[in-house]
Structures are given as structure tokens and as C-alpha cells.
Q: What sequence folds into this?
């Protein structure tokens, strides 16, 4: 059994909570005491139906205001897979939450109300999904029961959305007509839409192939922590020196020739260690400890790659940045802390090329700043080289966060472009 | 040649993520500690810590906030496990906080030291100058926790501000704090109760005996089975009876209920949990029942 992480974007109106509620219900991930609590609260508030959003909207302020203000993580499993849902609010003022939820997602579900068709917010969700390079996108055309399960209506929406999506970087796009309320095509195929020849949503989630979405080509191992036992659990490890980290790309094997960055020195992997014994190969997302044949000075923040396939050592970065704070704006000359893989440095915003309208994709080249939830293309200068790849090639070596130097809060998320 | 399919099992993915989180903390903070109660989640967390730094010993101390109302079997396990690992165990005592006048003991039948723990915990964090504190909380436990970050920022009062949390993207964790502030770190955030048990089975990890079915004198209150113990105040209208029970969670005796069960092995527990229709906190924790937002309110004050 493996794990699929997926993000859902939308508002209560789209039937998102109903859909999640149904997936949780039918996979028995909602428990009686949770359901009773939700039923009690719905009744107290005078709501006629059981408001399933109360399951996910856990904070006092959310329940009081009837809104979702943050990313909620929900869990369920079927015999085939474990699922982690990053449930994010859909409104434009929560763009940063959707960006956060999409950053780790293997798949995104965008819900469209069949009566309303493709709206501005559907286009925004699709754009953010593509910006964050979520490998699989499902467009769930919901409330099909309210359009008489019309194939024609479904086709119209599919054509309109496909035309828009062709302008984006959407890897794998699947359209599924559903009724979350009635359960049509959610868990099993619906008899109400014999014209639909695809699979149910759950079947798709259980079977979509994600193992090859990880980058298994470019070896990237950011050194996270040096293990050098001063008080070894065993005397045999007295001279042990291992480099621990989580594989960010490629497949590593003992005997492989590798290059250490920033030194550029080459050596070979002598052993890939874990608590459970040495392993014959390591690939994402494994956390392992590498040992090398030669004694090289290696520390946290360094990168291990292959001599003939190295990331860019860059001090000048081009990136799309999503700004995540209302405390200050991003402007040219802003100084920030940047964290990229295991390396932390200082960064200076050299230029803001344009601000992107996330609804229309219009580029405003006159813009002089980015405010909360705004996205723009930025040039950064960094105090020490970062070992980067295009975000489109590797999300782990292409993504970074920006931290405010005064408040220490995370104020931005960046995706590297043109790492060459 | 057959193309290898690099599929990774859910437990391997969760373990790799938790190890990454632990190493990140060890690398970025000066004085971390790991909250170890002898409960199953903290036991799993301890195993992850062993794995993350092997063959070096775990590079931070363990701490237990002891209400003085814990089960003997759990305290015995806590001490033995810490000794086996050669780890330093700090015991922060709620009784000491009471004796020093930092907190006042609740009175009455429902008196519990659950809430008093927060002061003891925060005092200990301040005394030892811990800047990162590992907790075994999971997001599937409770809905306020469903929105908490893996690296959860606490201000100088130890408070959690749910509306002002740091965005957390990819596997990049923001470890920046000022002196006096700290980060609560939850490496098991993405684990479910079933994942924890599957992992205990896979790894063959020992757990305290009270997790398995045993005969115990109990009484019923609010649909929960509370134990017969000196520290639990029982009314005349709450008769004792013998039952075959086990604990799904391990906490303070005054507010942790047992469930009727005959599960005597980890396999049987997994079967039981897979079929159960009640969450573990709903079944066994009086502390979460006081209101819709009980957990959120306690967490805001600095609770685990």
C-alpha cells in the first residue's frame, strides 16, 4: 500500500465538503462520535442538513464564521492506498493556503458546479495547480443530478476547460462527472450516466500511477546532518562518519561515482546505511545515510550529485514567488532569509519583472510590489550558491521559502525558473 | 530488462518523513528535547529518533511531564526504555508545581491534573531552555490538531496562535525563533492511529502491558470506564465492577477511560481498531469532551 497526497480546492457551494465527507464516509474514516458531534452542532445552528464542513473546520473562528481559514489535513485509506487530503479554501484571499496544500500534492481535484460551468475561480485553481506542478489534475464536474445527467453539458464544460488548460502545464488531466450528494461516480460507477465510460473518482484515486512522478533520473542528495558518533552505541562505529539526508532525486547505489558540491570533488559511495542495515539503492523519498570512499569535508547544506548530471550552482535566481504575508510587501531591495533544500542563506530581491493576475494570467509589468496572495516573477541575488534545478524538473530542488529577517515568519514561496 | 517500480509503502514514506523532520530539528536547534510519556505514539517517536541518528545515540534528552496520576505499568516502562537507550530522562512533576504554588489542585469528583500539566511543561521548557520540543500528536486525533503545522511556533508565553501559523511548504521547515520562543515539532503529524499500530507490529516494538486486554476493577462515568485507584474520586453512586479491558490511549488515570476488549496481541488490536467506529480520543478521553473547542483552547495555552 502506498500513499497518495491530494489537494482539493473549492468552496462549500461547489460541494467540496460533501465530496470529502462522502469519501471519508464510504471508506469508514468518519467515526460515530465525530458524526454525532457534527449532527449536534448542525442542529444547534438550525442547519437542515448535516454540515460536513464542520468535520474539517476545526478552529473556533472557523466554526463561528462558517469559513475555512487554513489547510486542514484529513486521512483515509482503502485496501489499495492510504490518502492524505490537503483541504484548502478556494477563495482568492486564501491563495497562499492553496499554494501550501498543492506543494506536496500528487494530485489535485478541482470541483466545478455543472450548472455554473467554468468560473474564474476554477481557472485560478487550475493555474495554481499548474504553477505548483501538481502532476495529476482531476476536474470533477459536480451536481450532474441538477443538469439531468446531461452528457452535452459535461462535454461543453470539458471543452471549455481543456481550451484553458492547454495554456498551462497540466501533465495529466481527467474529467469525471459526479454528484457528490447522491454518490454518482464517487465510489462506484453511476447508472445515471451510461454515456460516461471512465472510472469512478475513488477508483481513479486508487489507481493513478504516481511512482514515476518523482524524479528518478537526476541524482540529488542534499546533506542534512553529519552523523559522527562521539559516544557510539557500539565501539565498531568509533570512526564512523556518515552523511544523512532525504533523497531528493535519482537512484543512488553503492559504488556509484558522485560529485560533492560546492567542492566539485568526486568520490564513490561506499555504503548506504540505515538503522535496519545497509541498502542496495536509495531513491526519493527515502531518508538514508551515505558514506564515501574518500575523506571529503562535507557539511549540512552541501549537495551530492553525479559528475555528469549536476544541479546549477546559482547565486542569481529567477523564480515565481507567491507572497504570503500582509505585514509587509515584497519590493525590489527587500532582504530576506532563503531556505532551499538544507541550505539557508540571505537573499536580496533585485527585480520584480511582473505581477501575475491569477484569474486572467495577465502580466502587469508596471507592478512595483507583491502583496499578500500575489504572485510574480522575481530576480534574487543570494549570498552563497544554491544547488538548484528548474522547479518543473524537481519540486524539491526547485522550491524554496523566504523568511522575514525581523519576525522570522515564512513570507514567501518560490519556484525556480531557468536554472541554467 | 524489467523496469523497476519504485513504489514505497505507506509506512516507509511516513518513517522517511519523520526521520527527515527529526534530523532537521537536530541540525537547526540548539536544545531540543523529546516528550516521552510511555504512550504508544511517543514510543514510536523514540524508535524514529533511534533510526534517525544511528549509529550515534539520540542527540537530545527525553522529558516526561508526570502528573503523579500515571499508571504504574507505564512509569515502569518509561524508566526501563530510557535506561536501555542510555538517554537522559527529565521528569517534570506536576506535584512539584503544586508544592511550589505554581498551580492549584482542582477539587471535587472530576478533579484532574490534566490542565495543570501545561504550567509544569512550560516551566520545564523555560528552566532547561529548550528551543524545540518533539511531541507525538497526530493530525487525525482531533480537529484542532488537523490544522497544526509540523513545526508549530510558540511565543514566549508558550501560546499557539492558530490563525497566525507559518505556511509550511514542500519539506522545508522554518526553524527560526527568538530567545524565549520555541517550536513544538510533530514528526507523526501524518500518521493515523492505525499507522502507529501497523508500525508497532512491523517493527516489533514493545509497549506497556495496559494496551493489551486485562482484568481490572473499573466504574462507569459518562460512558467511560475509569479505573479503581486512590487518585480517582469515585462516588457512592458509581459502583465498581470487574471487566476485561484495555487502554487505547495512555494518560492521566483520572481522565483516561478503558475500553472493553479481549485483544491480547498487536494483531488483535489492529483488527479491533480497523473495525471500530469511535475515535480514540472520543472513546477514552474525558478531557476532550468538555466542549467543541476543548483541545484548541488547551493548545492555545501551551498544552501538548
A:
Amino acid at each position: 500500500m502506498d500513499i497518495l497526497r491530494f489537494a482539493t480546492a473549492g468552496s462549500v457551494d461547489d460541494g467540496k465538503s460533501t465530496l470529502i465527507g462522502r469519501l471519508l464516509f464510504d471508506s469508514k474514516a468518519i467515526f460515530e462520535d465525530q458524526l454525532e458531534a457534527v449532527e449536534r452542532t448542525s442542529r444547534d445552528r438550525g442547519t437542515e442538513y448535516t454540515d460536513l464542513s464542520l468535520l474539517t473546520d476545526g478552529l473556533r473562528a472557523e466554526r463561528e464564521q462558517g469559513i475555512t481559514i487554513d489547510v486542514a489535513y484529513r486521512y483515509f485509506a482503502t485496501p489499495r492506498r492510504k490518502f492524505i487530503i490537503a483541504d484548502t479554501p478556494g477563495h482568492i484571499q486564501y491563495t497562499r493556503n492553496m499554494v501550501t496544500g498543492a506543494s506536496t500534492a500528487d494530485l489535485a481535484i478541482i470541483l466545478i458546479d455543472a450548472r455554473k460551468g467554468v468560473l474564474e475561480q476554477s481557472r485560478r485553481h487550475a493555474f495554481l495547480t499548474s504553477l505548483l506542478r501538481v502532476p495529476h489534475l482531476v476536474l470533477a464536474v459536480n451536481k450532474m443530478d441538477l443538469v439531468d445527467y446531461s452528457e452535452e453539458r459535461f462535454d461543453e464544460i470539458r471543452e471549455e476547460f481543456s481550451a484553458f488548460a492547454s495554456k498551462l502545464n497540466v501533465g495529466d488531466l481527467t474529467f469525471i462527472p459526479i454528484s457528490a450528494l447522491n454518490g454518482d461516480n464517487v465510489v462506484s460507477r453511476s447508472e445515471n450516466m451510461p454515456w460516461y465510460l471512465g472510472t469512478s473518482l475513488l477508483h481513479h484515486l486508487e489507481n493513478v500511477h504516481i511512482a514515476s512522478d518523482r524524479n528518478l533520473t537526476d541524482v540529488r542528495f542534499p546533506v542534512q546532518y553529519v552523523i559522527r558518533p562521539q559516544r557510539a552505541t557500539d565501539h565498531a562505529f568509533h570512526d564512523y562518519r556518515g552523511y544523512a539526508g532525504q533523497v531528493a532525486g535519482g537512484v543512488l547505489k553503492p559504488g556509484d561515482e558522485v560529485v560533492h558540491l560546492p567542492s566539485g570533488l568526486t568520490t564513490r559511495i561506499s555504503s548506504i546505511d540505515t538503522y535496519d542495515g545497509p541498502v542496495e539503492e536509495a531513491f526519493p523519498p527515502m531518508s538514508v545515510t551515505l558514506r564515501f570512499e574518500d575523506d571529503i569535508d562535507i557539511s549540512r547544506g552541501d549537495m551530492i550529485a553525479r559528475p555528469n548530471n549536476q544541479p546549477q550552482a546559482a547565486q542569481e535566481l529567477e523564480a515565481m514567488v507567491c507572497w504570503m504575508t500582509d505585514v509587509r510587501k515584497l519590493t525590489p531591495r527587500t532582504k530576506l532569509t532563503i531556505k532551499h533544500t538544507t541550505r539557508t542563506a540571505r537573499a536580496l530581491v533585485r527585480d520584480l519583472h511582473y505581477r501575475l493576475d491569477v484569474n486572467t494570467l495577465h502580466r502587469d509589468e508596471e507592478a512595483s510590489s507583491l502583496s499578500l496572495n500575489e504572485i510574480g516573477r522575481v530576480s534574487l541575488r543570494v549570498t552563497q550558491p544554491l544547488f538548484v534545478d528548474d522547479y518543473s524538473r524537481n519540486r524539491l530542488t526547485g522550491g524554496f521559502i523566504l523568511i522575514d529577517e525581523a519576525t522570522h515568519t515564512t513570507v514567501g514561496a518560490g519556484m525556480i525558473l531557468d536554472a541554467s | 530488462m524489467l523496469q523497476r517500480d519504485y513504489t514505497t509503502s505507506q509506512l516507509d514514506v511516513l518513517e522517511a518523513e519523520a526521520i527527515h523532520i527529526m534530523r532537521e530539528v537536530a541540525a537547526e536547534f540548539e536544545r531540543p528535547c523529546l516528550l516521552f510519556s510511555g504512550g504508544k505514539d511517543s514510543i514510536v517517536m523514540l524508535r524514529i529518533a533511534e533510526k534517525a541518528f544511528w549509529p550515534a545515540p539520540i542527540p537530545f534528552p527525553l522529558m516526561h511531564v508526570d502528573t503523579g496520576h500515571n499508571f504504574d505499568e507505564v512509569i515502569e516502562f518509561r524508566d526501563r526504555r530510557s535506561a536501555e537507550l542510555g538517554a537522559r530522562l527529565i521528569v517534570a512533576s506536576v506535584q512539584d508545581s503544586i508544592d511550589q504554588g505554581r498551580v492549584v489542585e482542582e477539587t471535587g469528583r472530576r478533579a484532574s491534573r490534566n490542565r495543570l500539566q501545561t504550567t509544569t511543561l512550560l516551566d520545564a521548557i523555560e528552566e532547561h531552555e529548550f528551543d524545540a520540543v518533539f511531541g507525538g500528536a497526530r493530525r487525525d486525533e482531533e480537529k484542532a490538531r488537523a490544522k497544526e503545522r509540523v513545526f508549530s511556533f510558540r511565543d514566549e508565553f508558550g501560546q499557539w496562535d492558530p490563525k497566525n501559523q507559518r505556511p509550511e511548504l514542500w519539506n522545508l521547515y522554518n526553524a527560526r525563533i527568538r530567545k524565549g520562543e520555541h517550536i513544538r515539532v510533530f514528526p507523526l503529524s501524518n500518521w493515523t492511529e492505525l499507522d502507529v499500530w501497523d508500525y508497532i507490529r512491523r517493527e516489533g516494538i514493545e509497549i506497556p502491558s495496559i494496551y493489551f486486554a486485562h482484568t481490572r476493577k473499573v466504574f462507569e462515568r459518562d460512558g467511560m470506564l475509569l479505573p479503581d485507584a486512590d487518585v480517582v474520586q469515585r462516588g457512592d453512586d458509581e459502583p465498581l465492577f470487574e471487566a476485561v479491558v484495555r487502554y487505547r490511549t495512555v494518560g492521566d488515570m483520572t481522565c483516561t477511560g478503558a475500553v472493553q476488549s479481549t485483544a491480547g496481541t498487536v494483531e488483535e488490536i489492529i483488527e479491533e481498531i480497523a473495525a471500530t467506529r469511535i475515535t480514540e480520543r472520543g472513546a477514552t478521553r474525558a478531557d476532550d469532551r468538555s466542549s467543541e473547542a476543548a483541545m484548541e483552547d488547551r493548545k492555545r495555552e501551551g498544552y501538548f
Notes: The first strand of chain B starts at residue 32 and ends at 35. The domain at 10-195+293-301 of chain B is CATH 3.40.50.620 (Rossmann fold). Chain B is about 30% helix and 15% strand. Residues 219 and 240 of chain B are 5 Å apart (CA to CA).
